[in-house]
Every structure is written in C-alpha cells, then in structure tokens.
C-alpha cells in the first residue's frame, strides 16, 4: 500500500472542530476550488508571493502544482507539510508546517489560509494550534516562527492568542510595492503556557524518520 512508502498519509491532527491531514485527490480538488472562490479582498494581499492575483482557474491549478511539488521535494533536511483543514467533512483551508535543518535547529515555520466563506469563526486559531501541537509535542520543536503584514489583523490576533511574541520587522516587496512584515516567534515555554486548544495527533510514530527524527527525538 502507498502508506507503507509514504507514512505521512496516515498522519492526522484533530481539534474539537477540525481534522487536518494530507489531502487526497478529491480534497486537493476541493482546496483548489476554494482558492478559486477567493481568500481575501482584491485590494489586499496577505502573501509574500501574490499567487492569489492569478485568475481563478490558474489560481486553482497553482494549488495543485504546489502540493505535488512539495511532496516530491520532501527530505528530512527540508520539508513542507501542507495539511488540508476539514470541518464536518468539508475542506475549509490549508495549514502548513515547514522546516529546514529541523533536527539541528528545532525550529518550524507556520503558514495558512482559509476560504473566504470560512473566515471569522475561530478556525484559524484551532488549525494553527493543531500544527503547534505537532511541532512541540510531537516533533520536539524549541521554537515556532511566523510572520504577517502590518495590516493583517486577523493573523496577528491568532498569534497573540497562542502566545507568540513580536520579533522585529522585515521590509520586502509585495505587488512591486514596499511592505513591512512583522516577525513572530513562539518559544516552547510560551506555547506550554498558552496551550488552551485541545489537539490530538495520530499516526506520527511511523512518520518520524521522514522528519529526520527517531522515536525518542520526537517525544515531548
């Protein structure tokens, strides 16, 4: 079976409302459809790479290509875990956990998006709490980092709820214009203090080697 060769297919994260897992073909199609419908107002851009400026059909296709690319380039030294977020059987968004040189640095990065019709209901907090549980409790991370443009109040609110601290700024370009990104950092200690969302992990043990870890390395 394919799961014998790619055990990440059996990884499941759960919260009171959500399940997060690698998307199958139908779920990947649903993610693409969701992206085509829209993620943010057209006068705003929350992403460093403005992929949502693509026409709807191309935007959807870029979601599919991105998933295939990240699976195909996975190594224990450089990995990107793109998980479909599912509520009541419906795909509502994408939650990413990524790292380079994780076994040495024990630092992971989070990123995410929700379909516009699923925003404003607290899903963003639950889905990030789920991957933080994976990072800290499952994989033994010391820190998680993220970032948001200065006008992305929703992302900043999620970060504050979960215990992130601001960690300076970066200046970059988006849509050809200068923008400011607020860096955010969450220590293992702050995560433990603000660990308020119940989150579960299933199927991790057989995946640890893909993260460059052994059974002891990934234990909390």
From TrEMBL:
One Pfam match: Acetyltransf_3
Domain of life: Bacteria
PROSITE patterns: GNAT (PS51186)
Record-linked Gene3D superfamilies: 3.40.630.30
N-acetyltransferase domain residues: 18-189
Name used for this protein in its record: RimJ/RimL family protein N-acetyltransferase
Organism: Kitasatospora paracochleata
